[in-house]
Amino acid sequence: MKSQRISTKIKTLGVLFFILVVALIVTTIYLNQKSKQDALIINIAGKERMLSQRIAKNIFYTYHIKSTQFTELESAVDEFIYGLNSLKNGNQLLEIDSAPTQAIAKQFYIIDVIWNNYLKNVNEFKQNMLQKSFQKAEHNLEVVYNTNNALLQEVDTLVSLYTNHAQGKTQYIIYFQYGAALALIILFIYGFFKLRTIELNAKNFIQSTKQLIDSDDVEELKPLQINAESEIEEVSDTINCFINKISSAMNHSAQAIEQSKQASLQLEEITDEFDEILDSLKDSASISKQLNMSEDMVIESTEELMNSTRRLEELKAQLDRLKEGCKEERKSS
Hints:
single chain, mainly alpha, coiled coil, transmembrane, transmembrane helix, NarX-like_N_sf
């Protein structure tokens, strides 16, 4: 299996860190926004309780002074209805969603039943006061008084439901933040070990190359055995290819030198045999001439082999100088 590249590992760690940090930031912003929204909702629900008490108080006051001015009463009723509808159906202007749970929606149904009866008696009370029907108005007052406690209790229950919902949502987000923070710590530890592994692989590669440079005999050079990231393995493969080429050139040059020496010895033996034949056949002019020509060819071949041997020896000397140059450069650095 091919090792991952160093850049890939670092990019992967960076992307994971970025995602987790962004998730934490977004969650924090969302939590703050929801906290403001929940606070507004709970405030409106609590205000509904206060408005119901204001309506009842205003009715009692209006009845006792026998007033027909219902401005404050109507203002409280309108504000109660507006707040109740905003909580129940949502309000885009206030950025309030409709009932978030089934229990809250059911509670609104209970409040609606009580409120419709409550509002009916409030409207009848105003009409009876305008018509001076004080006895009927007193009956409406009693119904409002009896209904007000029930309405207050149900509105209190609504406030508690919204408070519990907000706390549960906040607790869930807090757990998510803890989980994200723990994931960040785990990712940090994982990234530390990954970077440590990269560092160790790099040190192993540098140590192997130093040992390669410190080698005194070029013929004993061995390929690097590195198991690391792709970039380091690619460099190791390049160095190994260079080492293999040097070793191959050294081997071929040594073999060629040995073969040329053997050929030179054989040619010398052949030359000696020709000399003996020439001594025995020196009276024959034509044979002597042909033998002289053969001798010249042998001598020429011998010279060519000697030149080849000299060139191969020069190649070997250049490789030796290359080794010495590497050593001197290492010492100077």
